[in-house]
Amino acid sequence: MSDYGWHEEAKKMWNDKASFWHSNSREMWDEGSRKTIVPFFEQFVPIGSTVLDLGCGDGYGSYKLWHRGYDVTGVDLSNEMITLCHHRMNDEMDQLMFEQADMLDLPFKHDTFDSLIAINSLEWTEVPAKAFDEISRVIKPGGYLLFGILGPTAGPRAHSYNRIYGEDVICNTMMPWEFEKLATEQGYSIIGSEGVYKQGVDKSHLGRLSQELKQSLSFMWLFMLQKQ
Prior knowledge:
The protein has helices at residues 6-16, 18-30, 37-42, 60-67, 79-88, 128-137, 176-185, 211-216; strands at 50-54, 71-76, 96-100, 113-119, 139-150, 189-196, 220-226. By secondary structure, it is an alpha/beta fold. Helix 4 (60-67) links the parallel strand 1 and strand 2 (71-76). Residues 52-147 form the Methyltransferase type domain. InterPro entries: Methyltransf_11, SAM-dependent_MTases_sf.
């Protein structure tokens, strides 16, 4: 690693983008690229489970999980995002908590949570393998981990473009098939997966393609893992 303050720069960027994200998050979770995430999560994780929402943004995804009956703790690198999370809460949300923290140093004991949801957050770490180790530490044996990894067609990948010029960037270029390899090398079972695509993709054609080709067309790929 270089001396570049990757995570500090990422924190600054997401602090700056907090208001923009907040103005769009509800649409993304209800109608857009994140609308299938909660239904996919519910296929594997029992209602009432404790959930760590890692990279929770303004907390709307955490709220949706809480509303479905999960005990949710949201964590984000950006303190501005966490402020927005707290604005969303009311007195009835006694099982919905938020905390500012870096996923490389989570403020939780070993084996704290039954499950994890981390949507487009691992990509904003300098060394995803180190973040994966820390994430794994706080999940109970037998627990479920849902990761959403940006596909090749995802707009946020523009944040890594300046690496072409040798400049420091804060978006990792890890692809879905690379995450899949990382997860299996770490001893995890992938028990479910599905793709999220832009509107221009004709899904009727996808059935003829290999998994790798499907992932190459994706905006995001969802992986459900289970900890042994």
